[in-house]
Amino acid sequence: MKLFTLGPVEIYPEVLSVYNNSFVHFRTDEYSDIVKNCLQSVSKLIGNSTKDSMIYLTASGTAAMEATIENCILENDKILVINGGTFGKRFCQLLNWHKIPFSSIDLKWNETLTYKHLDNFDKEGYTVLFVNLHETSTGQLYNIEILSDFCKRNNMLLIVDAISTFLADDYNMDASNIDVTIISSQKGLCLSPGMSMVSFSDRMLNRIYKNSKSASAYFDFKDYIDNIKRGQTPYTPAVHIMYQLQSMLELIKNSGGKQVWIHTIKEKCDYFRDQVISKNLKIPNYSLSNMLTPLIFEDINAYELIQVLKNKYRIFVNPCGGELANRLLRVSHIGNTSLEDIDDLVKKLLFCIEELKGAI
Ligand SMILES: *Cc1c(COP(=O)(O)O)cnc(C)c1O
Fold first, then answer.
1. How far away, in angstroms, is 244 Cα from ligand 1 center?
2. Cis before 237 (ω within 30)
3. In whole angstroms, what is the distance from residue 67 CA to residue 198 CA?
4. How much helix, strand and coil, in percent to the nearest 5, is found in the chain?
5. Residues 142, 133: Cα–Cα separation, whole Å
6. Is the pTM of this model over 0.90?
7. Residue nearest atom 3 in ligand 1 by C-alpha distance
8. How far is the CA of 197 from the centre of ligand 1 (A)?
9. What is the distance, to the nearest Å, from the Cα of residue 43 to the centroid of all Cα atoms in its chain?
10. Which residues are 103's β-sheet partners?
């Protein structure tokens, strides 16, 4: 069996081996030290130099998206959302759920986000921009520079869901003037699902304290920020994932650090893309993350192809939701997979395509 999925991914044996040892209880100095060290390292990887600026939640990424809305938005904010697929739409749905008004830039499938889309919203009094920097549903990686410039020009806060770009592409919160970064355990960090992290700029930390009351009791960020200063959380955290994180950070460090890590993913990504393109398979023209490659099918059903690959070979790739379900599949390049695994995937993918075309 092999997972070429986006998360959960093939977990590294070093990370799984944490289960061979026992875990200390979380209300101890020993555990606090692990948390402080880990979050400091992740903050470094994310490029945020603000001290004690990262909290972690025992919840998947969507909860972190919602909690950010519940804690980082003020009454009179004017909000803009980049809505280029399932995850952009999710921000819209969450804002709607909380009855918070917003405008959105709705991209059509295959439409690249450019300066022009943002121009319409220039000098219109917007205060916050929400974006999923890598729109995982289509694979489009937005240009952080145009978003960052736009926010700087309009003195807006920039809230980035970086869940599916972190540790696959370059990312730096300080350099891009990003105020919130949301990540989660099962994507770039290649850990079990169930933990998400939120990282804040200095001005966002101040704003959270200004916010009179969080819309969520369980996810009251002030409580998490106060607690994290001593390496703690208000409620019982996913202790086992923290141990996994500790082991993963060690693995990244020992493999040469962040740049080498990202380079290895890029290598797998380029290797896969070269192969599929040489076999006349089609990938989108817009800018892509190293984390995944979407394949576009016109003559066979992509969803059926995924089922055949799974049932016949126990190889898992990601389907696509909504209207693209029958046209797109997505192959991930993160996790414990090798170039040989990719050779095998491509070979079997081609078999399945032939089978569906009725040639076998
Ligand atoms: C995976 C992902 C999420 C989180 O989804 P969960 O199922 O809640 O973990 C959020 N945003 C993006 C861009 C993602 O890729």
1. 19
2. no
3. 9
4. 40, 15, 40
5. 6
6. yes
7. 61
8. 12
9. 15
10. 80
Which pair of tokens denotes residue 255?
């493999």
Q: Which amino acid is at 181?
A: T
The answer, yes or no, to whether any atom of ligand 1 lies below 6 A from the CB of 136, is yes
Give the long-range contacts of residues 91-95, CB within 8 A, separation 24 or more. Answer: 91/65, 91/130, 91/132, 91/161, 94/62, 94/65, 94/66, 94/69, 95/69, 95/130
Type of residue found at 351: F
Tokens of 19: 């289960």
The pLDDT profile of the chain, 360 residues, written as one tens digit per residue, is: 999 999 899 999 999 999 999 999 999 999 999 999 999 999 999 999 999 999 999 999 999 999 999 999 999 999 999 999 999 999 999 999 999 999 999 999 999 999 999 999 999 999 999 999 999 999 999 999 999 999 999 999 999 999 999 999 999 999 999 999 999 999 999 999 999 999 999 999 999 998 888 999 999 999 999 999 999 999 999 999 999 999 999 999 999 999 999 999 999 999 999 999 999 999 999 999 999 999 999 999 999 999 999 999 999 999 998 888 999 999 999 999 999 999 999 999 999 999 999 865
Atom of ligand 1 nearest to the CA of 196: 9
Reported in sequence order, the residue ranges of 207-350 that DSSP labels E, i.e. its strands, are 292-296, 315-316, 318-319, 328-332
Kindly state if the Cβ of 53 falls inside 6 Å of ligand 1: no
Atom number, ligand 1, closest to the C-alpha of residue 133 = 13
The pair of three-digit structure tokens given for residue 233, joined into one six-digit string: 């959380």
